[in-house]
Design a protein that fits this description.
With 354 residues, this protein is an alpha/beta fold. It is built from 11 helices and 14 strands.
């Protein structure tokens, strides 16, 4: 489902904050410095208990609008409530730990309009090392047959140095929630984020739902932003492992085509191997987090399957496969030793990247 290009679009940048005063103080000035005056800047505060709101009102008014939410609704619920009250043609969902170092809004919006994309992100690099791709997005998100999301420039924990391969603009499978441009029309038609996910992988679920409706998602590689990453939960946090594993299972079951008992059992096996690796490496809390993630899925299995049936019966369903890799990333990375996306067999795949 293609959108007609717009010669001019109103844009609103929306940063969701929860007890992130230090991030706001560190990164928000760079956003202000490189955002045109006609673009509205919002911080939606998710019920913070620190001094975020008072600092914003004292130091950032009137350029930054503050929207105070009553409690922490999570990443998904916070953005859903915030965007219900903000009017713009294009929303930019921006993490509070993203540094902007040059022009970004106009370049991304122009590329979206030229290529009739409905969702996009720039190239996302590491804040500490801007010459290396960042984990949460890199040069655009992809998806393998088992529902494992990966990126151009990042496979599992391996992030590649930025090369000419990464600075191209291309259509992908999902765009990073660290810096997500999305048209209001498709945001509202999709119903925003799935709040049951709370945090982690909401943007992947949203993009997958939109891709199944024929929408297009892209990465504007010549525009880069710097992302700190792990600003709320650290990589080795049991809570983060739980959310990533649980949400990944839910997102795959909701959106993936095929016989669900088959691909779910295969994924259960792979997750089991990952859990035992955690245990044998001494991370027993992470081992338990994977088990708890699966228990949560089983507890709500029938409700997820009902949602799956509803989504698959959509009269406008027309899946867009670009960015879907119908092979095993686990096999490619851990058995064959592939660390970068250029070593994968995209060139021989009809559903490969353009």
């Amino acid at each position: 489902m293609r959108q007609e290009p717009h010669d001019s679009s109103t844009v609103a940048v929306v940063i969701l904050n929860w007890n992130g005063l230090s991030h706001l103080q560190t990164y928000l000035p760079s956003v202000l410095a490189h955002t045109p005056a006609e673009v509205e800047l919002w911080v939606a505060d998710n019920g913070s208990s620190d001094e975020s709101v008072s600092w914003l009102k004292t130091h950032m008014a009137p350029r930054v609008h503050v929207l105070e939410l009553d409690q922490n609704h999570g990443f998904a619920g916070g953005y859903n409530r915030a965007l219900d009250t903000i009017d713009a043609d294009i929303y930019v969902l921006l993490n509070s730990d993203v540094r902007i170092s040059g022009p970004w809004i106009e370049e991304v919006v122009n590329t979206m309009n030229e290529r009739t994309w409905d969702v996009a992100s720039p190239l996302i690099v590491q804040d500490a090392d801007p010459d290396r791709c960042e984990h949460a997005g890199a040069a655009g998100g992809l998806m393998d047959r088992d529902g494992f999301p990966f990126c151009i420039g990042r496979i599992f924990g391996h992030c590649s140095p930025v090369t000419s391969h990464h600075v191209k603009s291309r259509e992908v499978f999902w765009a990073s929630g660290a810096c997500l441009f999305i048209r209001r029309s498709v945001w509202r038609s999709a119903g925003g984020f799935d709040e049951s996910l709370f945090a982690h992988m909401e943007e992947i679920d949203l993009c997958w739902r939109l891709k199944n409706e024929g929408h297009r998602v892209g990465c504007v590689g010549h525009v880069r932003v710097q992302h700190l990453g792990g600003g709320t939960l650290q990589v080795d946090s049991p809570r983060k492992v739980f959310l990533n594993f649980r949400n990944n299972l839910v997102v795959m079951l909701k959106n993936r085509d095929g016989w669900w008992p088959g691909f779910l059992c295969r994924r259960m096996l792979l997750d089991g191997i990952a859990a035992w690796r955690f245990l044998f490496s001494g991370h027993w809390r992470l081992f338990l987090a994977v088990g708890l993630a699966h228990a949560h899925l089983y507890a709500r299995l029938w409700s997820v399957l009902r949602l799956r049936r509803s989504l698959r019966r959509s009269p406008t369903r027309r899946p867009n496969r670009i960015g879907w890799w119908p092979h095993s990333l686990v096999w490619a990375h851990f058995i064959r030793g592939n660390k970068v996306d250029t070593e994968l067999s995209f060139i021989d795949d009809a559903r490969s990247l353009n």
